[in-house]
Design a protein that fits this description.
By secondary structure, this protein is an all-alpha fold. It is built from eleven helices and no strands.
Length: about 260
């Protein structure tokens, strides 16, 4: 209980100190709000512009969820195909790597030219989230204990049985690790694409509101939108961490050890 209290209490204490120092600096140097608003003003702006910001947050969360689900399903299915048919892996894996190493900030303006704005933002969220799922799931499927695989074959298990009853359960920790990474990256992809769309005068998501507020020097709203975006990222991370712990806690060492 003392360890749990420290893990919860210390970050809260650090946050409180940072907020207090932030407000003290703003007050001491009389910094104008268009340069650096105080935390009280940011909170007041969040309440005053809550309707607009929450609608924008809903747009961004929808894109993040759709991009994440496409990356999860596509990455897992393609990883299974790579594991079952080497010719598919040899043919497509290099292009998956190219997709990963190409900066999304450079791809987003091109996608906005050739696709409607919502589809372009969704494509960016998918692009950055896809490869971690694919790479981690492929690694997990290829890391199955060869002795167990030989034992399955010795007892006459079919290729489908080996996949469903041995490889996929064994690859689950790697798969969930990839999904945890993909959750945060889908947020980053959506934000980059929305900012690019905002520079073109289009968009309605939360990142677009940040760009719009910057153009109008409405810095308190920018901070408020950034706060909501950070909270969304934290919620996504903890939700995926909870899902991983829920699925692994009864048998995998990483979750058993952390769960006590």
């Amino acid at each position: 209980m003392s360890t749990r209290a420290l893990r919860i209490g210390l970050p809260i204490l650090v946050l409180a100190i940072v907020i207090a120092l932030w407000q003290a600096v703003v007050n001491a140097f009389a910094i104008p709000p268009y340069v650096l608003p105080g935390p009280g003003l940011v909170l007041a702006t969040l309440i005053a512009d809550g309707g607009l910001l929450w609608r924008s947050l809903l747009v961004t969360l929808t894109i993040i969820f759709e991009g994440f689900m496409l990356a999860a399903v596509g990455g897992i299915v393609l990883a299974v195909a790579f594991n079952q048919w080497r010719v598919v892996e040899y043919s497509l894996y290099p292009y998956a790597v190219i997709l990963q190493v190409t900066p999304v900030v450079a791809v987003a303006p091109l996608l906005l030219i050739y696709l409607p704005q919502p589809l372009a933002v969704l494509a960016c969220a998918w692009i950055v989230a896809f490869f971690p799922v694919l790479a981690n799931t492929t690694l997990g499927l290829n890391s199955v204990d060869h002795n167990l695989a030989d034992l399955f074959r010795l007892y006459g298990a079919t290729r489908r049985q080996v996949l469903w009853e041995l490889k996929l359960p064994s690859a689950l920790p790697h798969m969930l690790a990839g999904l945890k990474i993909a959750g945060g990256l889908s947020l980053i992809g959506a934000v980059v694409a929305e900012i690019a769309a905002g520079s073109a005068g289009a968009g309605s998501g939360l990142a677009y509101r940040i760009a719009e507020s910057g153009y109008r020097l409405n810095i308190p709203r920018m901070f408020a939108a950034l706060l909501l975006l950070s909270i969304a990222g934290i919620v996504i991370f903890f939700a995926l961490s909870w899902l991983s712990d829920l699925m692994l806690r009864r048998w995998h060492e990483s979750a058993v050890a952390s769960g006590g």
